[in-house]
Design a protein that fits this description.
By secondary structure, the protein is of the alpha/beta class. Helix content is 38%, strand content 11%. The longest helix is centred in the middle third of the chain and has 27 residues, at 182-208. It has an eight-stranded parallel β-sheet. A four-stranded antiparallel β-sheet has the order 5-4-7-8, with no helix packed on it.
Length: 499
């Protein structure tokens, strides 16, 4: 990344206000860009934008390249004439403060089906814009749309439980299904067409306002994804398509039994045979969606934690050597200098640190990790230690909000944080902590918008190693993008020379 002093906000589009049960890429997204511009921010960071599956996690997607159709805005389709006011007659009354995923998904499927019917009736499938999109994205789009159509036809079950011919991509079975279900397949292509159309328009608007977008790329893909179904040789699978080992992390700060993610692990020996083309294609695609890529779980490229499939938790895994700098050299050779930041958190070895240094990518510094009263100063997360080539956070999407955190940690650690950060007024601890963070030497500071508002634990977006219905469901209330938040954020930005 270009080394300039700047700042931004982390907020996922699902958290925007709006009438359709979940935030989307419609008017409230544009209002968000306007808010950032008026408050002096130049960076907007999102979580992964892929189509979510089990648990609604953006880190468990049906495709590494597809967009989340839940983010497609019905309001913008209304503006284009593919929906009418009458199409909204049965829209439910949704809660404003959180996403209720079940009803929201049901409604979005219903309204998008109506839009698709109108789109096809008006000849949308024959328009040059739609045809060009399908041709330019055929590498991943055809498999994804087919995958989703088969999944829907089989009641949504994972692809390992499909009929044998479809599960193993028998040509005769695939061709027969494709002919019989062409309308369903085109429906999923239509959703992708409009996701990318709306996202690209929003991104162009952000650029006009001087705002760059940091996007997130999960290191692993979901087992139940078109990537694994269509490219089984890229992963460690047995003859029936089941993983032999799965991803996770060992016991750590978040969980005493580790985290059992369940993602299949890459067969790097196979992938490197064509000079990591799979990763190059994926990075190239995502770099068209974002200005900067944040690589989640970067240490997995140095060494990854392999857990035998079927294990009850992550305690029985082992570390396995990853591709290291070789992969990033191939990416640079094919794509040139790319704007990347990395999540270098967790248990870090000298080897991981050396890989970070070799790539030159900025790593992350998280203030909430800094305060252990029984080991004062023995950490790289105290703000006065941050190097310029880093991205500083109060907490990430996996942490509690600052106010939730400071009020829930051990008294000894809270006293240490209060002393170090010179916190004085309990109701404004978050404001005082943000001033310290913004004044650090890190070239980039990114904070969750909940921390600009001083929201407590109700604003936490994810609790790792849990399946809480609150995970990923946080939403802004319409009135929270007000002048008070704007003024506070602008003062932070200007006074720390990050404007």
């Amino acid at each position: 990344m270009k080394q300039i002093r700047t700042s931004g906000i982390l907020l996922h589009p699902t958290s925007f206000p709006g009438p359709d049960g979940i935030g989307d890429l419609g008017p409230q997204a544009y209002a968000w860009i306007d808010f950032l511009e008026s408050s002096g921010c130049t960076i907007w960071q999102t979580l992964p934008l892929g189509p979510t599956g089990y648990g609604d996690s953006p880190y468990q997607c049906f495709s590494a390249c597809a967009g989340n159709p839940l983010l497609v805005s019905p309001t913008l389709l209304l503006d284009e004439g593919y929906l009418s006011p009458e199409d909204f007659y049965d829209r439910p009354a949704f809660p404003l403060h959180q996403v209720d995923f079940g009803p929201a998904i049901e409604w979005k499927q219903k309204i998008m089906s109506r839009a698709y019917q109108n789109f096809t009736a008006k000849g949308g499938l024959q328009t040059p814009e739609y045809i060009t999109f399908c041709e330019e994205n055929a590498r991943w789009l055809n498999d994804f749309a087919l995958f989703m159509a088969i999944k829907n036809d089989n009641g949504g079950v994972a692809w390992q439980y499909w009929p044998e011919g479809l599960k193993k991509r028998d040509k005769k079975a695939i061709n027969a299904f494709s002919v019989a279900n062409s309308a369903e397949i085109n429906f999923y292509k239509f959703l992708q067409f409009y996701f990318f159309k709306q996202w690209n328009n929003l991104m162009n608007y952000a650029h006009e306002k001087g705002i760059k977008i940091v996007g997130d790329i999960p290191i692993f893909v979901s087992m139940d994804s078109s990537d694994v179904w269509s490219n089984p040789d890229l992963f460690y699978l047995d003859g029936e398509g089941n993983p032999t080992v799965v991803a996770g992390v060992p016991p750590d700060y978040f969980s005493p039994t580790g985290q059992l993610w369940g993602n299949p692990l890459y067969n790097y020996d196979y992938i490197k045979k064509d000079n990591y083309k799979y990763f190059i294609n994926k990075f190239s695609h995502l770099l068209n969606l974002y200005d900067v890529l944040r690589i989640d779980h970067f240490r997995g490229f140095d060494s990854y934690y392999a857990i035998p499939h079927g294990s009850p938790d992550a305690t029985g895994g082992k570390w396995v050597k990853g591709p290291g700098i070789e992969l990033f050299n191939e990416i640079k050779k094919s794509l040139g200098d790319v704007n990347i930041v990395v999540e270098d958190l967790g248990f870090l070895t000298d080897s991981v640190r050396n890989l970070l240094k070799e790539t030159g990518f900025p790593g992350m510094k998280v203030m909430e990790f800094a305060f252990n009263a029984y080991d004062k100063g023995n950490t790289e997360y105290l703000p006065h230690t941050y190097p310029e080539n880093s991205v500083a956070y109060l907490g990430t999407h996996d942490n509690d909000t600052f106010m939730g955190w400071i009020n829930s940690i051990r008294k000894e650690d809270r006293d240490y944080a209060i002393e170090y950060l010179k916190l004085k007024e309990p109701s404004e601890y978050y404001k005082e902590a943000l001033q310290v963070l913004y004044n650090s030497k890190s070239n980039l500071v990114v904070v969750q918008f909940q921390d600009i508002l001083g929201t407590g634990s109700i604003g936490r977006i994810n609790a790792p190693a849990t399946l809480s219905e609150m995970n990923w469901s946080y939403r802004l209330l319409p009135y929270e993008l007000d002048d008070n938040a704007k003024t506070f954020l602008k003062n932070l930005t200007v006074h720390s020379n990050r404007g």
